[in-house]
Amino acid sequence: MPRVYATAKAFRTALEDRLNKTAGAEKIQVNRVRRQTHELPSVLLKPPPEWQARFNSLAEECQLPANMGALFAEVEAFFGQLAGSKGRS
Fold first, then answer.
1. N-term to C-term CA, the chain
2. Banded pLDDT at 88 (limits 50, 70, 90)
3. Are residues 20 and 47 both part of a single domain?
4. How far is CA 68 from CA 23, 32, 58, in A?
């Protein structure tokens, strides 16, 4: 059963606590990830078809359409905008 948080701030606090614990164990540079100082990949890889069943379950939970291909296209378009604006800065 997924955890439910009272507020977005509570979720963020829990997430950052977990990231910091993981960072200590795995030597991840949390600030680098948070500040997005790494390069964006040139393309996003399409999710494999075997993810569809799990995606459907998560989509229903998040009240999203269960069309993984269509939602990936939206994410891909958004990513393209981010990548384009990154080159202009």
1. 42
2. very low
3. no
4. 31, 30, 11
Give the number of other Cβ atoms within 10 Å of residue 40's Cβ. Answer: 12
For 66-84, the pLDDT digits (tens) are 889 888 998 888 888 777 6
11: containing domain? 1-38
**Are residues 28 and 60 part of one domain?**
no
Q: Which amino acid is at 20?
A: N
SS3 for the chain, per residue?
Answer: CCCCCCCHHHHHHHHHHHHHHHHHHHCCCHHHHHHCCCCCCCCCCCCCHHHHHHHHHHHHHCCCCCCHHHHHHHHHHHHHHHHHHHHHC
d(CA 56, CA 71): 12
